[in-house]
Amino acid sequence: MIKNSLGKMIPDGYKPFISVDHFKTESYNPLDKILSKEKCKRIESISLLFDELKIKDGMTFSFHHHYRNGDLLLNMVLKEIKIRNLKNITLAPSSIFPIHEPLVDLIKNQNVTSIFTNYVNGPVADAISHGYLKDLLIMDTHGGRARAIESGDIKIDVAFIAASAADLDGNANGIDGNNPCGPLGYIYPDLYYAKHKVIVTDTILDKLSKNEINHTYVDYLIKVDQIGLSSGIESGTTSMTKDPVQLKIAKDTVKLMNELDVIKNNMSFQTGAGTTSIAVAAYLKDEMIKHNIKGSFASGGITSSLVDMYNHKLFDKLYDVQSFDLTAVNSYKNNINHILMDASQYANPFYKDAIVNKLDCVVLGATEIDLNYNVNVTTTSTHQLIGGSGGHSDTAYGSKLTIITTNLVKSRIPSIRNTIQVISTPGNSVDVIVTERGISVNPNRNDLLDKLKNTQLKILTIDELYQKAIEIAGLPELFKHKERVIGLVRYRDGSILDSIYEV
After folding, report:
1. Whole-number Å distance between alpha carbons of 409 and 416
2. How many distinct structural domains can be found in the chain?
3. CA 356 to CA 13: how far, in whole Å?
4. What is the domain range of residue 397?
5. Gene3D superfamilies under this entry (predicted)?
6. Which residue of 50, 78, 191, 316 has the fewest C-beta atoms within 10 A of its own C-beta?
7. Does residue 43 contact residue 221 with C-beta atoms inside 8 Å?
8. pTM of the prediction?
9. 178 phi and psi, to 5 degrees?
């Protein structure tokens, strides 16, 4: 084991994290994109595709997560792997959700022995945390996954691409058909660089409303009974929280943005789909309307809250890598300025004009934060896998202002801690933490502190926030995990931020 610059121990043979800017010193040499050699071929079933491609032990399959907890395709492929009792398969889905519970048996049986993903939650996360995956889980960021595929760090034998509709030539999208899921932004690296690309859909049309996926990259087309459940893309809630703590955090976040001169014409903004994020968007909407502010764009996984702001003409454009609800899906289908961005355009550190680098402000969450502003969104305080960075550290790095919102204490557990279980986002990318009992500004941002000299907001040091948390909940015991490393948190540049241990 070796120690990286954050003091975290990582296994030998991996590149240790040095700094958030270290990638600027490195060259980037993406592989050539792989075009289809022949006309797209119609295959009648996944089983026949396995025969056609002579699928064997040790191969790598990739998937996207635009259906989120309504995805059915990964489970279809897992079923075929199980029937054939293939071994040592590597999976590279952009995310894993509770609906993918059938994967647990294949992990335990060593049909699947290695996984690359950006987010994992539910029964699969539990199985991996308890040490059932034979080899390592590699947790990338959304931009880091694109980099890894383009550079050949992740080599994909077959990309299985769920699409809500396709034509017989192999063009496809996520908006036509009976089960739309929105823009298919995360699958583009797989589409361009996998050895074999397979569109799987439940709807074949003569003509599509949009050709998101170009047939020149597609090798095979399969029609199934149902590709996914549109209802499964809903993330959390789309309604305004009534929790007074979260409402206070959201109000203070918007007040803070105002005092830091972020809320102004041509501003760009991103936030997530959690309850606090939805409240932030609602209060930001009111503030922008009050002062007649018009922003340039909002981006990310797009929610109905951001669509509402767009419909009120508060933003010129929406840049969408995935939709978080059906309102966003319909907006993308019908509005010319609701624009698909692929994973590299969104967040690849080596993509020159990545959208994350154009953000004025991003509002993100956290499960834990340490005294150096490092953030954990990968595990609980007892080291149980519950998520992953996704776009967290990508947007935190790129945005001019990165705000982390969190309850100071959750279920009698302090969110601000001396030591956190896993570092998902380095503290150098975090500017401000907003809790219901005070706001802490990273001392590296003296410019922000200067702007807040006369504020009525309660500004505290991180140590003062920590002490408040301890006064409320007491000093937490540091959870003792086992010694075996079962996963790695990989920063967007390919270096290793932290190790994940068996529990």
Report:
1. 8
2. 2
3. 30
4. 244-482
5. Glutaconate Coenzyme A-transferase
6. 316
7. yes
8. 0.96
9. -85, -20
